[in-house]
Amino acid sequence: MKSLDPRINRIEVPESIEPVKEHECWQTYEVFHQEKRGKQHVHVGSLHAPNSEMALLFAKEQFARRKCCVNIWVVKTADVFATSLEDEDMFETTPEKIYREAGGYKVAEKIAKYKESLKSKV
């Protein structure tokens, strides 16, 4: 099996690897990377790969080569679950739990009075 791709010709590809058959597709993976330790992972894109090990290799080459990156996750797109748009009401805040939101606290007036008192002392 001789490829026209020079990257493949540089390495010794074992003959036991079966080529992709016609109408056979690789799986789609979602890629998340972390720029610095302690920061959250951010979705940076998608890719196609035959398995998760190759997906990790492709993700490293595609998404971690130019930007700072300390960690990469690859997840099969089929394994990502999301809520449906009809379930949007589950995220609404109920009126009796207003204390959980910062808007429920009336401190803006106290802060303004404190700033005014600092100006008058100067």
Task: Describe the protein's architecture and organization.
- There is one protein chain.
- With 122 residues, the protein is of the alpha+beta class.
- It has a single domain, classed as Phenylacetic acid degradation B (Ubiquitin-like (UB roll), Roll), CATH 3.10.20.
- It contains 3 helices and 3 strands; from the N terminus they run H-E-E-H-E-H.
- It has a 3-stranded antiparallel β-sheet with strand order 2-1-3, covered by helices on one side.
- A hairpin with a 7-residue loop joins strand 1 (27-34) and strand 2 (42-49).
Keywords:
three-stranded antiparallel β-sheet, elongated, single chain, alpha+beta, Ubiquitin-like (UB roll)
Total strand segments: 3
Order of helix and strand elements from N to C terminus: HEEHEH
- Distance, first to last CA: 83 Å
Instruction: Pick out the low-confidence regions.
Output: none
How are strands sequenced across the largest beta sheet? 2-1-3
> In the CATH scheme, what's the topology name?
Ubiquitin-like (UB roll)
CATH superfamily: Phenylacetic acid degradation B
Task: Give the radius of gyration.
Answer: 26 Å
The CATH level-2 architecture is identified as Roll
Quaternary state of the chains: single chain
Which sheet architecture does the biggest sheet show? 3 strands, antiparallel
Name of the level-1 CATH class: Alpha Beta
Helical content class? 25-40%
Mean pLDDT across residues: 79
